[in-house]
Amino acid sequence: MIAKGWRELGRLKDREFLVGLGPHGEVPASIGHLDVSDRAAAEARSRHFRIALVLHTTKSDWGAQQIAGISETLAPYEASVATVIDCEYQADRQVEELHALISMRPDAVISIPVDNLLTADAHREIARAGIKLILMDNAPTGLRPGRDYVTVVSSDSLGNGQVAAEILSPDVPRGGTIGIVSFGLNFFVTNEREIGFRKWLGEHRPDAVVKRMQFVELSTAGELALDFLTKNPDVNALFVVWDEPAMEIVHALRIAGKRIAMATIDLGNEIAIEVAKGDLIKGVAAQRPYDLGVAEALATVLALTGAEPPPWIAVPGVAVTRSNLVEAYESVWRKPAPIDLQNALKTETQGG
Amino acid sequence: MASASNSSPGTDRPRRGGGELDSLATVLRLIRAGSAGTRHEIETGSGLGRAVVADRIATLNAFGLIEEGDLAPSQGGRAPRQVRFRGEAGYVLVGAVGNVSLGVGLADLSGRLVMEHHERSGIAAGATRTLDRLEELLDWVLAERTAAAGNLWGIGVAMPGPVERANGRAGAETVVHLAPDWTGHPVSERLRRRFNTPVLIDNDAHLMALAELRAGRGVGLQDLLFLKVGTGISVGLCADGQIHRGARGYAGDIGHTVVSDDGPLCRCGNTGCLEALAGGVALAREANAGTDGRSTYLTDLASTGRPLTAADVGMGAFHGDRFCIEVVSRCGRLLGGTLATLVNAYDPSLVVVGGGVAQAGEILVSAMRETLYRRSRSLATQEVTIVRSELGRTAGLLGAALAVGDELFAWDRLRAWIADGSPVQRPVVAPSHP
């Protein structure tokens, strides 16, 4: 898909109003604002830009779709992904890899900072080396749009948090308690999701009590959640800030023989199956990782051909429940829903 | 250090005389300001002897306020160790209440923001609701960063209107002049009681100017003029590295200067105010006018059903919509005329343009620049540089953090707490100077 501009791209079918402001309070722009002119397209094709991707992980569905969105959008402009780096969530690894990229001298780097503080200097050095820097999800501490980076591209995380709250609310009785499983590191997107979730509750369910637990290591999320629920037996439902820790908690709950309504962010394959089962996961606010990749690629082409993309580009999420699972899956992942997902939908909802 | 029999009351730290406090404060201020990075430089800068400096560094090190780290270049002998101020020794909560946005953040003592969040909100929600939300968000920040909760040194809040400081001495109140339900509202007192920490409230243009000077486009300069173009229009002035607030704190409140005898009605009740012609309200009015088909961009946006704002005009201009470009350019030309007067009066090294409308991109600043140079032939306007802020809405938070730091480390206040190594255990007092 080549996005030519807001007229031809048309509307996204879901929420079009972007709720969240950027990391420095920027008003959001949408993919539709990223109009590559014929002149810019011709210039890009003549220059064969080389782009480096630096991800926290390439093993997630999110990462794979991002890479696909970026690569397929760059292709018609004869730009290519020169290298994909997996930092495995390690800040020092990312710093090392960014330093190495300076000698490789790609035309641009698209990077998701794994730690806003620890990787700030390394990201700044990329920009100072004259390499265009496009950021996913976070802006490292102290870096400024225009001076240090071109843009931050992310989901409307505040809006996604609100969607998750709306999905989970029916499972919380009047005066009930909601638990938030929050990430213990300072990440813009997980912060915004939690703030959005709480904001929706504050406006629509002021009766609900909110309690919170945090995890840092993904592998500990299940055990910590069980401990939290044991100490807080009044918790009626859980919001988890993304799907991977949510699945850790689902597994832990199943082993312990416990059940609780949950909602999360991201429509990974495992979570999609859980939504289909109609059991613990009541729904998700799904990011659109492929579309995020499209936005990042377009912003990169624009920056490399002399334009100034907006400093904050957001992509609205998709509210996903069992009732629209197949359509949402196919919209988010741009492929037919897998057979096991469709089979899981046919199975009756387990227990009450 | 003095013996335990000379401890300060209520602590096990030795009591210190006035001379010792002065030298502790002097050494810390030199290090914090970046004026002295080695023991030798501290000795030279302070006029204190080697043994005294060594003792004060040991004390400040024990307090966790400084640390000696990497080796500095040798000056012809053994390479000295660099001494640095530890900003992470304490934390400051910051807030920025705007006309259409609300921001919060957490900064360390060097003014570095370690966390920030901005959302759509504003003073129109009323003083009580806005402050409820501000407190809610500040509580969330402290819950996120538990280290800060136990080590909170102060709160700074930027407000979108003139802020008056009565007396400016201990026990004084800051009064905020905004919409009727804000005027006289005890903003700082409420936050002081809620968080049990000193609170500083100031006009947002003042604080944004400070942020630009110390951490933005004005780094290395001693003066600049910051023009905030948002819903309101105001100016922040920095001279000799400090904010110029004026006699009562009202300096820079230019939005309600009448620039046209037959302009539209302004929210202040007058007609023809600069703000009514070139501020965010004016652009929002134009945004709605453009939905009659003159602007394809705005017409299409309006069909989604959500209200249009000044930011939409800016984004439309950014996107190349001709109507939006003309509206933003017209706004820039009007502002350029006012700017010419200000530049002639103050002769700043630099003019930085910020605020919500300035996020529209270079179009606004280019129009201002062109008008300024065309309409004024003074030496000041011919030499001045006009640039767009790169800080965005972060500027208000950053300025608040820097201003709180300036207050905490102001001479009189610093001497009051330095013997304890931190002001956190001391009773809360109001700002030390107007």
Q: Would you kindly provide a written description of the structure presented here, covering whatever features stand out?
A:
The complex is a heterodimer of chains A (352) and B (434). By secondary structure, chain A is an alpha/beta fold. Chain A folds into two domains: 6-149 and 288-316, Response regulator (Rossmann fold, 3-Layer(aba) Sandwich), CATH 3.40.50.2300; 157-287 and 321-346, Rossmann fold. In chain A, 42% of the residues lie in helices and 18% in strands. Chain A has a six-stranded parallel beta sheet with strand order 2-1-3-4-5-11, with helices on both faces. Chain A has a six-stranded mixed beta sheet with strand order 7-6-8-9-10-12, sandwiched between helices. In chain A, strand 8, helix 9 (243-256) and strand 9 form a beta-alpha-beta unit. Chain A is globular, with a radius of gyration of 20 Å. The termini of chain A are far apart. With 434 residues, chain B is an alpha/beta fold. Chain B is 41% helix and 18% strand. Chain B is built from 16 helices and 14 strands. Chain B has helices at residues 18-33, 39-46, 50-63, 127-144, 146-149, 187-195, 204-215, 274-278, 280-289, 296-302, 310-318, 322-346, 362-375, 379-383, 394-408, 411-417; strands at residues 66-71, 81-85, 91-97, 101-108, 113-120, 152-159, 163-165, 174-176, 199-203, 224-229, 233-239, 242-243, 350-354, 385-388. In chain B, strands 5-4-3-6-9 form a five-stranded mixed beta sheet, sandwiched between helices. In chain B, helix 2 (39-46) packs across helix 3 (50-63), helix 11 (310-318) crosses helix 12 and helix 12 crosses helix 13 (362-375). Chain A binds chain B through residues 6, 16-17, 19-27, 29, 33, 35, 117, 141-142, 144-147, 158, 182, 186, 191-192, 194-195, 198-199, 202, 212, 308, 310-311, and chain B through 101, 103, 112-120, 136-137, 140, 143-145, 300, 304, 306, 311, 314-315, 318-320, 356, 359, 361-362, 390-394.
